[in-house]
Write a structure and sequence with these properties.
With about 70 residues, the protein is mostly helical. The chain is built from three helices and no strands. The chain has one domain.
Length: about 70
Amino acid sequence: MTFPWCLLSALLISVLGLPGLWQAKQYREIAVFCFVLVVATVLAIIYVLRLPFPNPLKLMNGVFAPLNDILMRV
């Protein structure tokens, strides 16, 4: 039942936030606003549906482990 509330709250946030940015012609801020809102909404839906949450530490290990191997060889 909380899944629709995630979408409704994202819609409410966008309805309240976007008109002011649009009137001020702040198009880059609109793009960043929309990107952050979409990411936050997706993460909220993942949390509400109790899906496996992506762990940022695993991503960092995947990126920096090869770099660590290269630096250890030097």
